Amino acid sequence: MAMQRPVGRNTGSPGVEGSNPSPSALMGTDARVLAIVNSAAGAGGSLAPDDALAACRELIPGLDCLRAAESHAAVEAVADAVRGERPPALIVAVGGDGTARGVAEGIARGLGRWPSERRGGGVLLRDGWPGEGSSAGPAPLDREPGMLVLPAGSGNSAYAALWGERPWQEALRAALDGSAPRRHVDLVRLAGEDRATLLGVNVGLITAIAREIEERKRADPGAGGDSDERYWAAFSSALERFVAPRVRVSVDGEPLHEGAATLCTIGGVRRFGRGAFDLLPQALLDDGLLDVCVVAEVSPERLGELAHLVPSGTHVGEPEVAYAQGRQVAVESNDGSPLAIEHDGPPTVVAPVLALELVRAAGPAPCAPGDTLLPAPAGEFAGGVGSPTSGPAGGPAGRVTRAPPTA
Fold first, then answer.
1. From the CB of residue 46, how many other CB atoms can be counted at a distance below 10 Å?
2. If you count Cβ atoms within 10 Å of the first and of the last residue's Cβ in the chain, which end, N or C, has fewer?
3. In this structure, which CATH number among 3.40.190.10, 3.40.50.10330, 3.80.30.20, 3.40.50.970 belongs to the domain 2-185?
4. At what angle do helices 168-177 and 49-59 cross, to 10 degrees?
5. How do 254-267 and 246-251 pair as beta strands?
6. What pTM does this model have?
7. CB under 8 Å to 10, separation ≥6 — which residues?
């Protein structure tokens, strides 16, 4: 099946396998650039969406602009634009992580790369790899729009994953003048919800923190102040009330964890929390693999010790931490209750069984050059612990370490 096709890693450097022409090769005087703007995004101290839009207009004559306050509206607008007679050469996501997610999913749908589902011989088949039978027929490479993410939200982890700490003005100019390399961005599909996540899915403590942040926003919509202070205040409050959910986690059908979990993170980017937390140190945006990290239930004191390791990614390999890579991931509530999850923004509640699968190559995104997007060195992965495991049907090799089961 298409989901089992082996995929090589892409460095994102010009001229390597999988790389595309630079934006300057695609952008001429008649090239269309589309901005998707969420004016409701942002928080005190962050880039205002309208300020980012004004900067884009100064550099891009004839910029088209569509406003989408909800990510599903962004998905529809982008998909329609990509399918249109004059598709954009570049789509600029001006908002937070939810806006970036909507743009990426819209590109994948517009290009015919979103998994279609059909029944054949009693087996559910999912297609959608580029060039392998998605329902709309994948678009040729020369029709792919680039996706530029600007950090006009409260979290901006998608921007951090692509550009690190580079100023957004520099990112904008590099994307337009062709000096920025481009790399394809994989997505994670929430199968039961039929929607994407760009960053990944969190269950457990990170979801509780996100819920606390949203509650504080609703209680005081005009609250300003330092965003880091707001985050850590929400962290402290969430930790006081936190009860670790009991879940079963499997990767490509192999069990990884069962029992109470302080956190479970699944995705394709290394860093979360605006780039501060290296939760998935082996993750790449475009390697065709999902990375999974599960931290078993631990005491508050032990959680504090692990928290000091997360910024460097050295929590992987600790006895309470399980880590794996694969193509399909399932997270199931042990008691059959709905799962509280967070992805690309506000938390939500889904069915007791969450099935996640990879969607390859949503579109090429301009990004920072250099090694900022590369995984941690092999010696840091799992602290030197763990054994290689093969991907499904000879796919990319992953690695896995398992934490001891919790009572």
1. 17
2. C
3. 3.40.50.10330
4. 30
5. antiparallel
6. 0.78
7. 16, 17, 18, 19, 183, 184, 286, 287
User: Same topology for domains 2-185 and 200-360+377-400, yes or no?
Assistant: no
Our CA angle for 259, 207, 335, nearest 5°, is: 35
Q: Where are the domains of the chain?
A: 2-185, 200-360+377-400
pLDDT tens digits, 374-391: 444 433 333 222 233 333
What is the C-alpha to C-alpha distance for residues 406 and 44, in angstroms, rounded to an integer? 41
Q: Are the C-beta atoms of residues 56 and 81 closer than 8 Å to each other? A: no
Tokens 């920025």 found at = 180
The amino acid at residue 242 is F
Query: From the centroid of its chain, how far is CA 290?
Result: 10
Q: How far is CA 353 from CA 74, 143, 266, 300, 341, in A?
A: 27, 37, 14, 28, 12
**Residue 358: DSSP 8-state:** E
Closest CA to 320 of 385, 364, 240: 385
DSSP 377: P
Who's near 356: CB < 8 A, 6+ residues apart?
188, 189, 190, 191, 201, 266, 290, 328, 329, 330, 331
Tokens of 74: 């962004």
- The domain made up of 200-360+377-400 has a fold known as Tumour Suppressor Smad4 (2.60.200)
pLDDT in tens, 185-241: 899 999 988 999 998 999 999 899 888 888 877 777 666 555 667 777 887 888 888
Stretch 50-72: mean pLDDT: 91
Binning the chain into helix, strand and coil, the percentages to the nearest 5 are 30, 30, 45
Cβ(297)–Cβ(244) under 8 Å? Answer: yes
Residue type, 164: G
Report yes or no: 126 and 359 within 8 Å, Cβ to Cβ. Answer: no
Q: Give the closest residue to 129 by CA, choosing from 141, 137, 121.
A: 137
Residue 263: which of 294, 236, 291 has the closest Cα?
A: 294
- CA angle at residue 45 from 162 to 35, to 5 degrees? 50
Q: Which residues pair with 389 in a beta bridge?
A: 398
**C-alpha separations of 77 from 37, 50, 393 in Å:** 11, 19, 37
